[in-house]
Design brief:
Oligomer: single chain
Radius of gyration: 20 Å
Strand content: under 5%
Structural class: mainly alpha
Largest sheet: 2 strands, antiparallel
Order of helices and strands: HHHEHHEHHHHH
């Protein structure tokens, strides 16, 4: 954390010439700590950078849920196409306002539960994995193949081979 504590922004004196969006408030300090905590585990080399592909994981670790389009636009703002890594300083500067404005909130447990209940036309309290997979492939944001596979694996109850969505809605809303 030493490198984070020594950034010029944190050392800058607050004065009337500092724009309000750059002032170091308790909320901004807390958000910066959250950003660092999410970013740091993916900085495997300790270089204050992460590979571009990890940005999605970091954003989800921050409990943010951008659309695929928003995610791609965000990544392109902090990484040029030819760049393979994203720098912490650029990431923080770009993500901080989005966090302050709650631009990409996660769905609540109630919203997730309602979505599952809509798919459960027989009101059984569960859905079959192939039903979920069909809806996820046919509607909404596109999934990468590994994402969909991981989602199905994580959601299926191993003893019944179905998705008990009430329990799963809680997990999706909180993890």
């Amino acid at each position: 954390i030493k490198w984070m504590e020594c950034t010029p922004k944190e050392k800058r004196m607050e004065d009337s010439q500092t724009p309000p969006e750059e002032r170091d408030t308790p909320l901004r300090r807390q958000l910066r700590r959250s950003i660092y905590s999410a970013f740091h585990p993916f900085d495997r080399e300790g270089t204050q950078t992460v590979i571009k592909e990890e940005i999605r994981n970091i954003i989800h670790a921050l409990n943010m849920n951008p659309s695929e389009t928003q995610m791609n636009e965000f990544i392109s703002t902090i990484c040029a196409d030819e760049e393979k890594e994203a720098a912490y300083e650029k990431f923080e500067k770009a993500i901080l306002p989005k966090m302050e404005n709650n631009e990409w909130p996660r769905a609540t447990e109630e919203v997730i539960l309602q979505a599952f209940q809509t798919l459960d036309t027989e009101k059984q309290g569960y859905i079959e994995p192939d039903v979920l997979q069909k809806y996820l492939l046919d509607y909404g944001e596109p999934f990468r193949p590994t994402e969909l596979e991981d989602l199905i694996k994580a959601s299926v109850d191993p003893t019944t081979a179905v998705i008990h969505y009430e329990k799963y809605a809680t997990i999706l809303a909180t993890e």
